[in-house]
Specification:
Blueprint lengths: L2 H18 L21 H4 E5 L16 E5 L4 E2 L5 E2 L2 H10 L11 H8 L3 H9 L3
Antiparallel strand pairs: 1-2, 3-4
Length: 130
């Protein structure tokens, strides 16, 4: 596959995930609470997070059934007013720890549930990528 084809697949993945999720972080809700007419650049604000790591799913898992919109580079405050990582980094903890650590509600199974998908469905759709 050429670099150009890979770029197009990645772009389609991001676009499909962002559109399905209505350009809103599925963890904290950033995006849905913006005032009418207020614009944020999705590519600067959000990441299309691979729920199952790209290396562990057929054809890299570049299908919306394996992606979820999360905010990136935005530190948040928890209920105690302490800074916490961006939603993207909080979801990445599972991958970074090789599946040994995750925040409650952010296990891949929880993320699949949030978007109405599953690991099995993501694998099926990923196999269809050419």
């Amino acid at each position: 596959m050429s670099k150009k084809e890979k770029k197009l697949i990645r772009k389609k993945f991001r676009d499909d995930v962002f559109e399905r999720d209505r350009y809103t972080c599925q963890i904290c809700g950033l995006g849905e609470s913006l005032p009418n007419g207020f614009y944020i650049d999705p590519s600067e604000t959000f990441d299309a997070h691979h729920i199952t790591d790209r290396s562990k799913i057929p054809n890299g898992g570049y299908v919306k059934e394996n992606g979820i919109t999360v905010c990136k580079d935005n530190a948040h405050l928890n209920s105690d007013g302490e800074r916490i990582d961006s939603c993207h980094m909080r979801c990445e903890e599972f991958h970074i720890s090789d599946g040994t650590k995750w925040e409650e509600g952010l296990h891949p199974n929880d993320l699949y549930e949030k978007i109405g998908s599953s690991h099995e469905l993501a694998c099926i759709k990923s196999k269809e990528l050419k």
